[in-house]
Amino acid sequence: MFFQMTDAILSAKDINVHFKSKNGLFHAVRGVDLEIFPGETVAIVGESGAGKSAFARAIVHLNQPPFTPKYTYVTGKLTLNSPFQTDLINASPNILRKVRAEAIGMIFQDGLSALNPVLSIGVQLLEALHKSNRSLNDNPKDEIIEIINTMGFPEPNRIINAFPHQLSGGQCQRISIAIATLRFPVAIIADEPTTALDVTIQAQILKLLRDLCKKRSMSMIFISHDIGVVAEIADRIAVMKDGKVVEVSSKKKLFTSPSHQFTKKILNSRPRPNFTLNDKARMNVGESVAVSLEKVSYNYHGGVFTNRVGNIAVKNVDLTVFSGETMGIVGESGSGKSTLAKLLLGFLKPSNGKIEILGYNPTNIQAPDLLNFRRKVQVVYQDSISALNPRKTLGNSAAEGLEIHGMKRDLARIKVREIFENVGLPETIAERFPHQVSGGQRQRVCIARALALNPSILVADEPVTALDVTIQAQILELFRKLQRNFNLTIIFISHDLEAVANLCSRVAVMHEGAIIECNTTRKIFKNPDENFTKRLVDSIPGKI
Amino acid sequence: MQKKEHNHKKINILDPLVLSSLGLFLIIFLGIFSPLIAPHDPNFTNLPLRNLPPIWMEGGRWDFVLGTDNIGRDLLSRCLYGIRTSFGIATFGLIFSAILGIGLGLCSGLGPLWVDRLIMTITDVFITLPNILLLLCGITLFGTEIWVLIVLIGLVRWEAYARLVRGQVLSLRSMGYVESCKALGGSPFRIALLHILPNLTSPLVVILTLSFPGVLLMEAGLSFLGVGVQPPTSSLGRMIGDGRDYLINAWWICGIPSIVIISITLLFQVIGDTLRDRVDVFSDD
């Protein structure tokens, strides 16, 4: 698709964005040129900190006070050509309000926090409607119902009276989209609108956005870190790195013949299913059972005055993991994956059922056995910044397990150096603090800390979710290597189906607390038995 | 905040934090070395020279720079000794209450549910009791020794720290590094001392600095009422109480100790506020 025939509705030339911080100016966006044509969707992809959001927010001056306390300087030439002509860089606050109200809508990542929690959805839509210049017809309620209908809600009347917290994340995001688009803007800026959503919901939201843009021939600037999502929605793609646009081309061209090195790198880093490798790995798995769960359930208790049984987080789960195996556990948010991890670690006691891990029962384990159990079962978390004590050096954090298990401090430090080498970290990093290293390095330190005790089982709870895609690939490779070298049993919990397909030899699919299907990775991804699994696999964005 | 520890910047003398810390150190120094600095015995009465005004007023004398009180005691010497008494009681009272509050807060946040409920109920009870009532009861029962005052001040102030620490512990204990330590086999004791407490330092330093003036004023209030430090020992509150009746014709008897209390309080407030602004992550950018 080529839109160059007509005039761009928005054109940016040599845009630079500087943030003022304590250590001087931070140059977030460095000379970006980009034109948006009517009706096209331009995606901006890049890793965290590439300046994607800074650029998009600069268009409508959202990174200016009062929206953020940070002082920002935007230079360059930024012109809006439709529906009215204006210079956005030097626009007065009144013009800017007009631009935001009529020309450019915004959608953010978190749909729930974008809505006012004390007003009902209907009231919020009505408010947005009044602000617009559209002539109201006699009955605004009808119009709102129509808008809600367009957003694909089955029961608009119920939604009108609902409050944001009564809706799911996906529904809130639909309402935000409704609010952003009900003034018929010429363009919307969507800043990671599906990142916080489950894959199946993500697919629905992407479809909604695509249909809206098509129907109203609206342009969209779609910001995402996920090249797969971008492949689903974009007409043109701009790849950003370190504040610069390194490549802009049509979707087809970008995916078939990327010109820039970095584009090639992110395309190649996408985790791909590794069925043959995983099948081969399964051949080496022994017969001995490492983890066995029998009819395990867990209920959260709640209530202010009563101790009533709350949500059932895990329901009748049967699971067997053999030693040396990489078992994937996938499911959407709230499906009980993390509760299952806590049960495996013995942090929670199951309400019903029996857990046996390497011959231990983590539920009622006593002092000397407890330390042995801890030595054998280790954990890696999603968020590496909160998983490391900010006041301890990385070396000390990694050595902690060894010290707890009675190793002398200097010996422990020597051992840590060895493990750092195993996980691909330079020795010098041991003296640094968590905030001084990158996310990928931090996650390696967390893995090093877990491996220090020579565990047999590693529970990894969304270990690659918070990482950029290029780093993700490295960490997945690291898991594979460690599994081979140390004969680890890995329980890999993730909502990211691609990562699971890349690493695991068997997969268990969780839905509403129960394991609905457990089979080899190939079977789950190629030929699933359950409808839910099929839906989940079909929602993986951008299967190229 | 962490960043600041690692790049050594030159200390700016005009920084409010530096200035007020210097002022505070001066006052602490004066208090500690008051026996060496004070020109007179603070309890020596000199009736012919009573109600002598400070040096800058008519009739002031160089050997009694800040004047004398109603029974002819040197106000400068009494102030220096008063700083020593009041500051000491407040410091030790604060330390005692901090230890009590932090300890109970940690137990409450990390212990089993029944411990948490028990400690929080006690905290609630202490919050509802009027401080002054508690202090007066304690003084009636145990007398007005200095250590009794310290313990009593500690006992009425701890609940704020206990609540703060408990709240912080509740949010910190779900952090990955606490769970990881648990997964490595770390004992609750280790978790509390190595992982939770160091990460509580910044809010604690701020709240302790900000609550010091309150403790100081509490001691001053008690002494003013005559139930705190007993004569002839001088304390700032006691001195204000003594000068109460002479406000019209010799204002300096209570004016001068008041100025000392106000300056100490102000210095602490400035330090606390500045610390809070610099330590707080949210006002960072």
Defining traits:
heterodimer; A: 544 residues; alpha/beta; Rossmann fold; six-stranded mixed sheet; 20 helices; B: 285 residues; mainly alpha; MetI-like fold; 11 helices; disordered C terminus
Helix % of chain A is 25-40%
Give the CA-based shape of chain A: globular
Residue runs with pLDDT of under 50 for 5 or more positions of chain B: 1-7, 281-285
Kindly report the average pLDDT value of chain A.
85
Residue stretches of chain A low in confidence (pLDDT < 50, at least 5 long) are none
Q: What structural category do the secondary elements of chain A indicate?
A: alpha/beta
Rounded to the nearest angstrom, the distance between the terminal CA atoms of chain A is 19 Å
Top-tier CATH class of chain B = Mainly Alpha
| Total count of helical runs of at least 4 residues of chain A | 20
CATH superfamily of the domain at 10-269 in chain A: P-loop containing nucleotide triphosphate hydrolases
* CATH T-level topology of chain B: MetI-like fold
Helical content class of chain B: 55-70%
User: What count of helical segments of chain B does DSSP give?
Assistant: 11
Account of the protein in words:
- The complex is a heterodimer of chains A (544) and B (285).
- The two termini of chain A are 19 Å apart.
- The longest helix of chain A is centred in the middle third of the chain and has 18 residues, at 199-216.
- Chain A contains 20 helices and 19 strands.
- Among the domains of chain A are: 10-269, P-loop containing nucleotide triphosphate hydrolases (Rossmann fold); 384-454, no CATH class.
- Chain A has helices spanning 52-59, 93-103, 121-131, 140-150, 156-161, 169-181, 199-216, 227-233, 251-256, 261-269, 275-283, 337-345, 367-376, 394-404, 409-422, 439-451, 469-486, 497-503, 521-526, 531-538, and strands spanning 10-21, 24-36, 41-45, 72-80, 86-87, 104-107, 187-191, 219-224, 236-241, 244-250, 289-302, 308-322, 326-330, 352-357, 377-380, 457-461, 489-494, 506-511, 514-520.
- Chain B has 285 residues and is mostly helical.
- Chain B has a single domain (11-279), classed as Orthogonal Bundle (MetI-like fold).
- Helices cover 70% and strands 0% of the residues of chain B.
- Mean pLDDT of chain B is 84; it is low at 1-7 and 281-285.
- The chains are: A alpha/beta (544), B mainly alpha (285).
- The A-B interface holds A 21-22, 69-70, 345, 347, 370-371, 374-375, 377-379, 381-384, 386-392, 397, 400-401, 404-405, 433, 435, 446, 449-450, 453 and B 2-3, 6, 175-177, 179-186, 190, 194-195, 198-199, 284-285.
